[in-house]
UniProtKB/TrEMBL annotation:
InterPro entries in alphabetical order: Ankyrin_rpt, Ankyrin_rpt-contain_sf
Species annotation: Trichogramma brassicae
Positions of ANK repeats: 21-53, 95-127, 167-199, 243-271
Keyword check for Glycoprotein: no
Top-level taxon in the UniProt lineage: Eukaryota
Matches recorded under Pfam families: Ank (PF00023), Ank_2 (PF12796)
Protein name: Uncharacterized protein
Keywords (A to Z) from UniProt: ANK repeat, Repeat
Keyword Methyltransferase assigned: no
Length: 363
């Protein structure tokens, strides 16, 4: 009706008029997910490349929307194709985000697929140094990850799979930090380096060995070695991070008994092994969810016994300093205040063994 009124009065409507924030009517329509008005404005000549004071264009507003379907995005492309108008697919807002970045951040598969098939650049970085693949790894969406590589392959685009973001992390690091071994496998299948270091010198295996759960640590470590074998990647199992620690040392400090066993079975070197310092165990203690839980003390003690078995089974002998470090850290879990009564047989055997070990250290 507004357009009809304007024509009847022979008045020229300024369709891209801006308010104090440089928002146009098209921007407002898109912000409100008003598909009908958005299409009308586009057909009446609204500029889809016009930006507000945050450098967001129509594509950004569409991909910022909570609505996940691609209806409005398709209409924009269809109308612009009819008008023979070039849309700035790779335009970046004030944070460096493209429409693809924003669609991926919200997990909007349909929008991301359409943008990729229209030819947007998947390698552009935002102000945090994140490419599309970094975001995919951080949102941990397996379907979008598969789709991303499929479309890039169809478009003959080589994916920069080992790029580091502004935090010094590559997609493979995020995959293991989020415990997503499916995406990790997909990344390695497409060229990700399992020995790639972040800015702190950590490899993906270091990240695996810094988790807080023995169950998760075992699962991730097993998957890590399966991925390396499936894709014929030789793992630098004794790589040191910037603190001079290997994955084995971190696994010991995190009480990841099953991961320790797996590392040793896969060739971790004990000839130059140095037991982790107390401060690294203390970090693991700080991460624990409930250190007043008697069951937690029970499980930590069992893990310590298993770690000692694994190390000694491969020829490492604990020295007095190692034993004292174990004592100090078990004391943080209330080990010496916990009664043996009402515990199961496995714990009693473990407790007796540790008590003997600690007694030998005191004498």
């Amino acid at each position: 009706m507004l357009f009809q009124f304007g024509y009847a009065r022979h008045q020229q409507l300024v369709i891209d008029a801006r308010n104090c924030s440089s928002l146009t009517p098209l921007h407002y329509a898109l912000l409100r997910d008003n598909v009908r008005v958005s299409e009308l404005l586009l057909r009446r000549g609204a500029d889809p490349n016009s930006t507000d004071d945050k450098e967001s264009a129509a594509l950004h507003f569409i991909c910022m929307s909570e609505c996940g379907d691609d209806t409005t995005l398709r209409i924009l492309f269809d109308v612009c194709d009819e008008r023979k108008l070039l849309v700035g697919l790779d335009a970046q807002d004030f944070r460096g985000n493209t429409a693809l970045h924003l669609a991926l951040m919200r997990g909007h598969r349909e929008k991301a697929e359409l943008l990729l098939r229209r030819g947007c650049n998947p390698h552009l970085i935002n102000s945090e140094g994140s490419t599309a693949l970094h975001i995919i790894s951080k949102i941990s969406d397996n379907d979008i990850a598969e789709l991303f590589f499929e479309i890039c392959f169809d478009n003959n685009q080589i994916v920069q799979v080992n790029a580091l973001d502004g935090f010094g992390l590559a997609p493979i690091h995020y995959a293991f930090e989020l415990h997503n071994t499916s995406i990790a496998d997909l990344l390695v299948r497409n060229g990700a380096d399992l020995n790639l270091r972040d800015w702190t010198g950590r490899t993906p295996l270091h990240i695996v060995c810094q988790v807080d759960s023995n169950v998760i640590g075992e699962s991730l470590a097993r998957a890590f070695f399966e991925i390396s074998e499936d894709h014929n990647q030789t793992v630098q199992i004794d790589a040191q991070d910037n603190e001079g620690l290997t994955p084995l040392q971190w696994a010991v400090a995190r009480f990841l008994s099953d991961a320790v066993a797996l590392l040793l079975d896969h060739g971790a070197d004990l000839s130059s092994f140095v037991f982790p310092e107390e401060k690294h165990f203390h970090d693991a203690f700080d991460r624990s969810l409930d250190t007043s839980d008697v069951e937690l003390t029970f499980h930590v003690a069992l893990n310590v016994c298993s770690i000692i078995d694994s190390l000694e089974g491969k020829g490492y002998n604990l020295n007095n300093g190692d034993v004292k470090t174990i004592m100090i850290n078990l004391s943080r879990y209330g080990f010496f205040q916990t009664s043996m009564e009402s515990k199961n047989k496995e714990y009693k055997q473990c407790r007796e063994r540790l008590d003997k070990l600690f007694e030998s250290c005191r004498t």
